[in-house]
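This section describes the prediction task in plain terms. A model, or a person checking by hand, is given the sequence of a single protein chain and must write out its three-dimensional structure as a string of C-alpha coordinates. No templates, partner chains or ligands are provided. The sample shown here is typical of the held-out split.
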Amino acid sequence: MVLEPGFSRSGPASAADPVRVMVVDDSAVVRGLITRMLEEDPGFAVVASVGNGQMALSALERQDIEVVVLDIEMPVMDGLTALPRLLKADPDLQIIMASTLTLKNADISLKAIEAGAADYIPKPTSSRDLAGVAGGAGDFKRELLGKVRALGIARRRRPRRGRLPGSSSTAQSLPAAPAATPAPIHKAPANIVLRSASFEAPDIIAIGSSTGGPQALFTVLGALKAGSLRQPILITQHMPPTFTTILAEHITRISGWEAAEGKDGEVVRSNRIYIAPGDFHMVVEVKGTDKVLRLNKNPPENFCRPSVDPMLRSVAAAWGRRVLTVILTGMGADGLKGGQVVIGAGGTVIAQDEATSVVWGMPGAVATAGICSAVLPLAEIPQYIQRVAARH
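The expected answer:
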Protein backbone atom coordinates (compact mmCIF):
# COMPACT_ATOMS: atom_id res chain seq x y z
CA MET A 1 0.00 0.00 0.00
CA VAL A 2 1.03 3.63 -0.53
CA LEU A 3 0.72 5.42 2.78
CA GLU A 4 -0.86 8.85 2.98
CA PRO A 5 1.36 11.95 3.27
CA GLY A 6 0.51 12.50 6.92
CA PHE A 7 1.54 9.00 7.97
CA SER A 8 4.48 8.45 10.27
CA ARG A 9 5.73 5.37 12.05
CA SER A 10 7.16 5.58 15.54
CA GLY A 11 9.84 3.32 16.99
CA PRO A 12 12.49 1.26 15.19
CA ALA A 13 11.38 -1.16 12.49
CA SER A 14 11.62 -4.88 13.13
CA ALA A 15 13.04 -7.32 10.60
CA ALA A 16 9.50 -8.39 9.73
CA ASP A 17 8.28 -4.87 8.88
CA PRO A 18 8.27 -3.82 5.22
CA VAL A 19 11.11 -1.56 4.09
CA ARG A 20 9.81 2.02 4.03
CA VAL A 21 10.61 3.65 0.68
CA MET A 22 10.27 7.10 -0.88
CA VAL A 23 10.19 7.40 -4.68
CA VAL A 24 11.37 10.76 -6.07
CA ASP A 25 10.90 11.36 -9.80
CA ASP A 26 9.42 14.22 -11.79
CA SER A 27 7.50 11.78 -14.01
CA ALA A 28 4.22 10.70 -12.43
CA VAL A 29 4.17 7.72 -14.78
CA VAL A 30 7.61 6.53 -13.67
CA ARG A 31 6.76 7.10 -10.00
CA GLY A 32 3.60 5.07 -10.40
CA LEU A 33 5.34 2.18 -12.15
CA ILE A 34 8.19 2.01 -9.63
CA THR A 35 5.69 2.22 -6.78
CA ARG A 36 3.66 -0.67 -8.20
CA MET A 37 6.78 -2.80 -8.65
CA LEU A 38 7.67 -2.29 -5.02
CA GLU A 39 4.14 -2.64 -3.63
CA GLU A 40 3.60 -5.98 -5.40
CA ASP A 41 6.05 -7.35 -2.84
CA PRO A 42 4.83 -7.31 0.80
CA GLY A 43 8.40 -6.61 1.88
CA PHE A 44 8.08 -2.96 0.81
CA ALA A 45 5.85 -0.01 1.70
CA VAL A 46 6.07 3.16 -0.37
CA VAL A 47 5.43 5.83 2.25
CA ALA A 48 5.99 8.82 -0.05
CA SER A 49 5.98 9.47 -3.79
CA VAL A 50 7.03 12.99 -4.82
CA GLY A 51 8.15 14.93 -7.88
CA ASN A 52 11.32 16.80 -6.88
CA GLY A 53 14.02 17.14 -4.27
CA GLN A 54 12.34 19.93 -2.33
CA MET A 55 9.22 17.82 -1.90
CA ALA A 56 11.42 14.91 -0.82
CA LEU A 57 12.93 17.02 1.97
CA SER A 58 9.47 18.00 3.14
CA ALA A 59 8.30 14.38 3.08
CA LEU A 60 11.36 13.29 5.09
CA GLU A 61 10.32 15.66 7.88
CA ARG A 62 6.94 13.91 8.14
CA GLN A 63 7.81 10.31 7.41
CA ASP A 64 10.11 7.65 8.80
CA ILE A 65 11.85 6.65 5.57
CA GLU A 66 14.60 4.06 5.20
CA VAL A 67 15.42 3.96 1.46
CA VAL A 68 15.01 6.64 -1.21
CA VAL A 69 14.95 6.03 -4.97
CA LEU A 70 16.12 9.44 -6.20
CA ASP A 71 15.93 10.67 -9.79
CA ILE A 72 18.70 12.97 -11.02
CA GLU A 73 17.04 15.42 -13.43
CA MET A 74 14.05 17.18 -11.81
CA PRO A 75 12.68 20.73 -11.68
CA VAL A 76 12.81 22.95 -8.54
CA MET A 77 15.55 20.80 -6.93
CA ASP A 78 17.45 18.06 -8.76
CA GLY A 79 18.73 14.86 -7.22
CA LEU A 80 22.37 15.88 -6.83
CA THR A 81 21.32 19.06 -4.98
CA ALA A 82 18.86 17.18 -2.77
CA LEU A 83 21.25 14.35 -1.86
CA PRO A 84 23.45 16.11 0.75
CA ARG A 85 20.42 17.83 2.27
CA LEU A 86 18.58 14.53 2.67
CA LEU A 87 21.64 12.94 4.26
CA LYS A 88 22.13 15.92 6.57
CA ALA A 89 18.52 15.53 7.72
CA ASP A 90 19.00 11.76 8.23
CA PRO A 91 22.56 10.37 8.00
CA ASP A 92 21.18 6.81 8.15
CA LEU A 93 19.12 7.27 4.99
CA GLN A 94 19.99 4.85 2.17
CA ILE A 95 19.75 6.60 -1.22
CA ILE A 96 19.72 4.92 -4.63
CA MET A 97 20.31 7.28 -7.55
CA ALA A 98 18.12 6.46 -10.57
CA SER A 99 19.19 7.65 -14.01
CA THR A 100 19.10 6.80 -17.67
CA LEU A 101 22.23 5.43 -19.33
CA THR A 102 23.93 8.58 -20.57
CA LEU A 103 27.51 9.70 -20.00
CA LYS A 104 26.25 12.80 -18.20
CA ASN A 105 23.99 10.86 -15.85
CA ALA A 106 26.63 8.20 -15.21
CA ASP A 107 29.06 10.96 -14.19
CA ILE A 108 26.44 12.57 -11.93
CA SER A 109 25.60 9.20 -10.37
CA LEU A 110 29.23 8.55 -9.45
CA LYS A 111 29.60 12.07 -8.06
CA ALA A 112 26.51 11.31 -5.96
CA ILE A 113 28.13 8.12 -4.68
CA GLU A 114 31.23 10.11 -3.71
CA ALA A 115 28.85 12.44 -1.83
CA GLY A 116 27.22 9.61 0.12
CA ALA A 117 24.62 7.87 -2.04
CA ALA A 118 24.59 4.13 -1.34
CA ASP A 119 24.00 2.91 -4.89
CA TYR A 120 22.57 3.68 -8.32
CA ILE A 121 20.18 1.99 -10.71
CA PRO A 122 19.93 2.58 -14.46
CA LYS A 123 16.39 3.36 -15.56
CA PRO A 124 15.02 2.08 -18.86
CA THR A 125 15.22 4.75 -21.51
CA SER A 126 11.45 5.34 -21.75
CA SER A 127 8.31 4.84 -19.70
CA ARG A 128 7.20 2.35 -22.37
CA ASP A 129 10.30 0.22 -21.68
CA LEU A 130 9.72 0.61 -17.96
CA ALA A 131 6.10 -0.48 -18.31
CA GLY A 132 7.20 -3.53 -20.25
CA VAL A 133 8.92 -5.00 -17.20
CA ALA A 134 6.51 -3.71 -14.57
CA GLY A 135 4.50 -6.89 -14.30
CA GLY A 136 7.21 -9.50 -14.60
CA ALA A 137 10.69 -10.54 -13.59
CA GLY A 138 12.48 -7.97 -15.77
CA ASP A 139 16.04 -6.97 -15.07
CA PHE A 140 15.08 -3.51 -13.83
CA LYS A 141 12.49 -4.82 -11.39
CA ARG A 142 14.81 -7.54 -10.09
CA GLU A 143 17.63 -5.06 -9.57
CA LEU A 144 15.35 -2.45 -8.00
CA LEU A 145 13.81 -4.84 -5.47
CA GLY A 146 17.14 -6.48 -4.69
CA LYS A 147 18.91 -3.19 -3.98
CA VAL A 148 16.08 -1.65 -1.96
CA ARG A 149 15.74 -4.81 0.14
CA ALA A 150 19.50 -5.13 0.74
CA LEU A 151 19.89 -1.49 1.73
CA GLY A 152 16.83 -1.59 3.97
CA ILE A 153 18.20 -4.61 5.81
CA ALA A 154 21.66 -3.03 6.05
CA ARG A 155 20.20 0.13 7.58
CA ARG A 156 18.38 -1.83 10.27
CA ARG A 157 21.51 -3.79 11.21
CA ARG A 158 23.61 -0.69 11.85
CA PRO A 159 23.57 1.42 15.01
CA ARG A 160 21.33 4.41 14.35
CA ARG A 161 23.01 7.82 14.33
CA GLY A 162 19.74 9.71 14.41
CA ARG A 163 18.63 12.70 12.38
CA LEU A 164 21.56 14.98 13.16
CA PRO A 165 23.52 17.20 10.77
CA GLY A 166 26.78 15.70 9.64
CA SER A 167 28.88 14.49 6.77
CA SER A 168 27.66 11.35 5.04
CA SER A 169 30.60 10.46 2.86
CA THR A 170 32.73 7.58 4.10
CA ALA A 171 35.40 7.93 1.41
CA GLN A 172 38.75 9.05 2.72
CA SER A 173 42.35 9.17 1.59
CA LEU A 174 44.72 7.24 3.80
CA PRO A 175 48.52 7.24 3.73
CA ALA A 176 50.02 4.00 2.54
CA ALA A 177 51.89 2.01 5.16
CA PRO A 178 55.67 1.78 4.67
CA ALA A 179 56.72 -1.46 3.01
CA ALA A 180 58.97 -2.32 5.94
CA THR A 181 56.14 -2.23 8.48
CA PRO A 182 55.52 -5.78 9.74
CA ALA A 183 52.02 -7.11 9.11
CA PRO A 184 49.91 -7.17 12.28
CA ILE A 185 48.01 -10.22 13.46
CA HIS A 186 44.38 -9.69 12.52
CA LYS A 187 41.72 -11.01 14.85
CA ALA A 188 38.85 -12.60 12.96
CA PRO A 189 35.30 -11.44 13.64
CA ALA A 190 33.13 -13.86 15.60
CA ASN A 191 32.44 -17.16 13.84
CA ILE A 192 34.99 -16.45 11.09
CA VAL A 193 38.05 -18.65 10.70
CA LEU A 194 41.05 -17.12 8.94
CA ARG A 195 43.58 -19.04 6.89
CA SER A 196 47.25 -18.28 6.31
CA ALA A 197 48.12 -15.92 3.49
CA SER A 198 50.53 -16.83 0.72
CA PHE A 199 54.12 -16.03 1.68
CA GLU A 200 54.93 -14.76 -1.79
CA ALA A 201 54.26 -11.32 -3.19
CA PRO A 202 51.38 -11.35 -5.67
CA ASP A 203 51.92 -10.56 -9.33
CA ILE A 204 48.29 -9.45 -9.78
CA ILE A 205 45.63 -7.85 -7.58
CA ALA A 206 42.02 -8.68 -8.44
CA ILE A 207 39.16 -6.73 -6.84
CA GLY A 208 35.45 -7.56 -6.91
CA SER A 209 32.67 -5.25 -5.72
CA SER A 210 29.01 -4.37 -6.18
CA THR A 211 26.59 -2.33 -4.04
CA GLY A 212 28.60 0.43 -2.39
CA GLY A 213 31.61 -0.62 -4.45
CA PRO A 214 32.46 2.65 -6.19
CA GLN A 215 32.81 4.48 -2.88
CA ALA A 216 34.92 1.63 -1.49
CA LEU A 217 37.10 1.59 -4.62
CA PHE A 218 37.66 5.34 -4.35
CA THR A 219 38.82 4.89 -0.76
CA VAL A 220 41.15 1.94 -1.42
CA LEU A 221 42.65 3.19 -4.66
CA GLY A 222 42.84 6.77 -3.41
CA ALA A 223 45.18 5.49 -0.69
CA LEU A 224 47.20 3.32 -3.10
CA LYS A 225 48.66 6.21 -5.01
CA ALA A 226 50.00 5.69 -8.51
CA GLY A 227 53.47 4.20 -8.52
CA SER A 228 53.17 2.73 -5.04
CA LEU A 229 52.71 -0.80 -6.42
CA ARG A 230 54.27 -2.69 -9.30
CA GLN A 231 51.30 -5.06 -9.69
CA PRO A 232 48.50 -4.39 -12.17
CA ILE A 233 44.98 -4.27 -10.70
CA LEU A 234 41.95 -5.91 -12.30
CA ILE A 235 38.51 -4.77 -11.14
CA THR A 236 35.07 -6.22 -11.72
CA GLN A 237 32.42 -3.86 -10.39
CA HIS A 238 28.79 -4.69 -11.13
CA MET A 239 27.91 -1.82 -13.45
CA PRO A 240 26.14 -1.27 -16.76
CA PRO A 241 27.80 0.07 -19.92
CA THR A 242 28.67 3.78 -19.84
CA PHE A 243 29.00 3.71 -16.05
CA THR A 244 32.23 1.70 -16.18
CA THR A 245 33.73 4.27 -18.57
CA ILE A 246 33.02 7.04 -16.07
CA LEU A 247 34.15 4.88 -13.13
CA ALA A 248 37.59 4.57 -14.74
CA GLU A 249 37.80 8.34 -15.18
CA HIS A 250 36.86 8.94 -11.53
CA ILE A 251 39.46 6.42 -10.33
CA THR A 252 42.16 8.11 -12.42
CA ARG A 253 41.20 11.51 -11.01
CA ILE A 254 41.10 10.33 -7.39
CA SER A 255 44.13 8.02 -7.37
CA GLY A 256 46.44 9.16 -10.16
CA TRP A 257 46.53 5.59 -11.50
CA GLU A 258 46.12 4.98 -15.22
CA ALA A 259 42.66 3.39 -15.11
CA ALA A 260 40.56 2.35 -18.10
CA GLU A 261 38.09 -0.25 -19.25
CA GLY A 262 39.86 -3.40 -20.35
CA LYS A 263 40.09 -4.02 -24.10
CA ASP A 264 39.95 -7.40 -25.78
CA GLY A 265 43.47 -8.59 -26.64
CA GLU A 266 45.18 -5.98 -24.44
CA VAL A 267 48.37 -7.12 -22.70
CA VAL A 268 48.25 -6.67 -18.92
CA ARG A 269 50.96 -4.21 -17.83
CA SER A 270 52.30 -3.09 -14.46
CA ASN A 271 51.06 0.06 -12.74
CA ARG A 272 47.70 0.05 -14.50
CA ILE A 273 44.10 -0.55 -13.48
CA TYR A 274 41.81 -2.50 -15.80
CA ILE A 275 38.04 -2.35 -15.25
CA ALA A 276 35.61 -4.89 -16.69
CA PRO A 277 33.37 -3.01 -19.16
CA GLY A 278 29.65 -3.07 -18.49
CA ASP A 279 27.89 -6.10 -20.04
CA PHE A 280 31.18 -7.98 -20.65
CA HIS A 281 32.96 -10.55 -18.52
CA MET A 282 36.66 -9.69 -18.32
CA VAL A 283 39.08 -12.63 -18.08
CA VAL A 284 42.79 -13.26 -18.61
CA GLU A 285 44.47 -15.80 -20.83
CA VAL A 286 48.14 -16.72 -21.14
CA LYS A 287 49.60 -16.04 -24.59
CA GLY A 288 53.28 -16.96 -24.70
CA THR A 289 54.97 -14.89 -22.02
CA ASP A 290 52.12 -12.35 -21.90
CA LYS A 291 48.89 -12.23 -19.94
CA VAL A 292 46.18 -10.94 -22.24
CA LEU A 293 42.69 -9.60 -21.45
CA ARG A 294 39.71 -11.22 -23.09
CA LEU A 295 36.19 -9.82 -23.08
CA ASN A 296 33.20 -12.07 -23.65
CA LYS A 297 29.44 -12.13 -23.48
CA ASN A 298 29.12 -15.57 -21.95
CA PRO A 299 25.92 -15.99 -19.91
CA PRO A 300 25.67 -13.90 -16.73
CA GLU A 301 26.92 -15.52 -13.55
CA ASN A 302 25.24 -14.69 -10.25
CA PHE A 303 22.79 -12.67 -12.39
CA CYS A 304 25.69 -10.41 -13.37
CA ARG A 305 27.73 -9.54 -16.43
CA PRO A 306 30.44 -8.55 -15.70
CA SER A 307 30.83 -11.10 -12.93
CA VAL A 308 33.67 -11.47 -10.45
CA ASP A 309 33.82 -15.29 -10.56
CA PRO A 310 35.05 -15.70 -14.16
CA MET A 311 37.71 -13.04 -13.59
CA LEU A 312 38.98 -14.85 -10.51
CA ARG A 313 39.02 -18.26 -12.19
CA SER A 314 41.11 -16.84 -15.00
CA VAL A 315 43.65 -15.02 -12.81
CA ALA A 316 44.11 -18.17 -10.73
CA ALA A 317 44.84 -20.12 -13.92
CA ALA A 318 47.21 -17.42 -15.21
CA TRP A 319 49.15 -16.51 -12.03
CA GLY A 320 48.59 -19.44 -9.68
CA ARG A 321 49.59 -18.69 -6.09
CA ARG A 322 50.73 -15.16 -6.95
CA VAL A 323 47.18 -13.71 -6.79
CA LEU A 324 45.78 -11.35 -4.17
CA THR A 325 41.99 -11.09 -4.30
CA VAL A 326 40.03 -8.38 -2.50
CA ILE A 327 36.25 -8.68 -2.14
CA LEU A 328 34.57 -5.40 -1.25
CA THR A 329 31.01 -4.48 -0.33
CA GLY A 330 28.20 -5.85 -2.48
CA MET A 331 25.01 -7.89 -2.35
CA GLY A 332 24.90 -11.53 -3.38
CA ALA A 333 27.76 -14.01 -3.36
CA ASP A 334 29.65 -13.22 -6.57
CA GLY A 335 33.34 -13.90 -5.93
CA LEU A 336 32.83 -16.88 -3.61
CA LYS A 337 33.29 -19.64 -6.19
CA GLY A 338 36.08 -17.76 -7.92
CA GLY A 339 37.73 -17.08 -4.56
CA GLN A 340 37.70 -20.78 -3.81
CA VAL A 341 39.54 -21.38 -7.09
CA VAL A 342 42.11 -18.72 -6.12
CA ILE A 343 42.67 -20.49 -2.78
CA GLY A 344 42.94 -23.86 -4.55
CA ALA A 345 45.74 -22.41 -6.66
CA GLY A 346 47.59 -21.15 -3.56
CA GLY A 347 46.56 -17.49 -3.76
CA THR A 348 45.20 -15.16 -1.07
CA VAL A 349 41.72 -13.71 -0.50
CA ILE A 350 40.77 -10.89 1.85
CA ALA A 351 37.41 -9.21 2.44
CA GLN A 352 35.89 -6.00 3.74
CA ASP A 353 34.28 -6.33 7.16
CA GLU A 354 30.56 -6.06 7.88
CA ALA A 355 30.70 -2.81 9.84
CA THR A 356 32.16 -0.80 6.95
CA SER A 357 30.32 -2.55 4.08
CA VAL A 358 27.21 -0.97 2.61
CA VAL A 359 25.97 -4.54 2.09
CA TRP A 360 27.89 -7.49 3.53
CA GLY A 361 26.81 -9.99 0.90
CA MET A 362 29.83 -10.67 -1.31
CA PRO A 363 32.48 -10.09 1.38
CA GLY A 364 30.36 -11.93 3.93
CA ALA A 365 30.11 -14.96 1.63
CA VAL A 366 33.89 -15.35 1.29
CA ALA A 367 34.53 -14.49 4.94
CA THR A 368 32.10 -17.05 6.36
CA ALA A 369 33.31 -19.69 3.88
CA GLY A 370 36.68 -19.70 5.65
CA ILE A 371 38.78 -18.75 2.61
CA CYS A 372 39.97 -15.31 3.80
CA SER A 373 43.34 -14.47 5.28
CA ALA A 374 41.99 -11.16 6.65
CA VAL A 375 38.58 -9.54 7.12
CA LEU A 376 39.27 -5.84 7.54
CA PRO A 377 37.63 -2.45 7.91
CA LEU A 378 37.76 -0.56 4.63
CA ALA A 379 40.31 1.92 5.99
CA GLU A 380 42.81 -0.89 6.71
CA ILE A 381 42.61 -2.62 3.33
CA PRO A 382 45.03 -0.28 1.46
CA GLN A 383 47.77 -0.80 4.05
CA TYR A 384 47.27 -4.57 3.95
CA ILE A 385 47.55 -4.60 0.15
CA GLN A 386 50.69 -2.46 0.32
CA ARG A 387 52.38 -4.76 2.83
CA VAL A 388 51.55 -7.96 0.96
CA ALA A 389 52.47 -6.47 -2.42
CA ALA A 390 55.89 -5.41 -1.12
CA ARG A 391 56.98 -8.88 0.02
CA HIS A 392 60.11 -10.37 -1.53
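For orientation: The chain has two domains: 19-157, 204-389.
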